Amino acid sequence: MPPVVLPREILPTDGRFGCGPSKIRSEQLDALVGPGAAILGTSHRQAPVKNLVGSVRARLAELLRLPDGYEIVVGNGGSTAFWDAAAFGLIERRAQGLVHGEFGGKFAAAAAAPWLDTPDVRKADPGSRARFEVVEGVDVYGWPHNETSTGVAAPVERVHGDPGALTVIDATSAAGGIDFSVAEADVYYFAPQKNLGSDGGLWFAAVSPAAIERIERIAASGRYIPEFLSLKNALTNSRLQQTLNTPAVTTLLLLDDQLRWILDQGGLQWADTRTRESSQALYDWAEASAVATPFVSDPADRSPVVVTIDFADDVDAASIAKSLRQNGIVDTEPYRKLGRNQLRIATFVSIEPEDVRKLIQCIDYTLENL
Length: 370
Known about the structure:
By secondary structure, this protein is α/β, with parallel strands linked by helices. The chain folds into 2 domains: 8-24 and 267-369, Aspartate Aminotransferase, domain 1, CATH 3.90.1150; 27-264, 3-Layer(aba) Sandwich (Aspartate Aminotransferase, domain 2). The chain has helices at 26-33, 47-63, 79-89, 102-110, 209-219, 231-239, 249-265, 267-288, 317-325, 353-369; strands at 71-76, 95-99, 120-123, 140-144, 146-147, 152-153, 166-170, 187-190, 202-207, 292-294, 306-311, 342-346. A 7-stranded mixed β-sheet has the order 1-9-8-7-4-2-3, sandwiched between helices. Helix 4 (102-110) links the parallel strand 2 and strand 3. The longest helix is centred in the last third of the chain and has 22 residues, at 267-288. The radius of gyration is 21 Å and the shape is globular. The mean pLDDT is 96.
């Protein structure tokens, strides 16, 4: 089936709507090849790169409005590395994991390490979110702030379980795009390739004094912990403005400029307003459509940064995505493992709300002419 040729006047100025890696602003690239060019290819143990790490940590602390005693920790690898690091150095005995999509399930799987007690895993039906329940003996409660695979968002709220229990939040697709209080979490961790408009290779975490105490205590307990996955190593090196091994310097440069931009616009509150404007336009359109509907049925659970839209059986969403792609509008396909007749559209902070409105026009035009 040939693609629908979209009129030029309805095309978005930028056709990148992918949920990861996400759109990178041209100004970030200018900063990368401008001032950043002098840093690329230099020692990560010398002042220029260490100062860059320090700038990123300071700007993240400002963006997240860190309470006294909280620290920003950075480590090699992405969120996948952090899941395993948490199993080695954050979970003391047993975790409870809430699963409302693919990535919550991966944290729960990592928490099933053989030296830990079997995790308490609570799964929600696709398109809805799981709820935590206080269980005796659980010392880590973890879930995604935003589930990238399904477009389900969950509030960040502290679990008051056993004394010393930690609340651990996966924020990879939420960080920098959804406002919240970091004081409600002990660990708020993420890779920076979504709202934070960067690349892979690093993880970051805002950690509370209680989490720091847990990390240091487990590290001193005699438990075997691989050096690369040691949260204590990451904490020690972060305080020196470095990582255990060579960091992804390009990732740091892109992230530093993105953080500067978000802070200059008004910080997390501004970012939240912007992503909600974009996502609400899509939800309103789907609610009014005769052939589309929001996949997440409860409006309270709908993500402001990852929008999933189901289509009627007589509409082939894959053909819509393919046609859009051939017009330069890319990465609107659904999450590959979800297997639904839907589009998944990022409304991250770098994406212009006006481009989202243009995208809606393009989808309508494609539906009418495909």
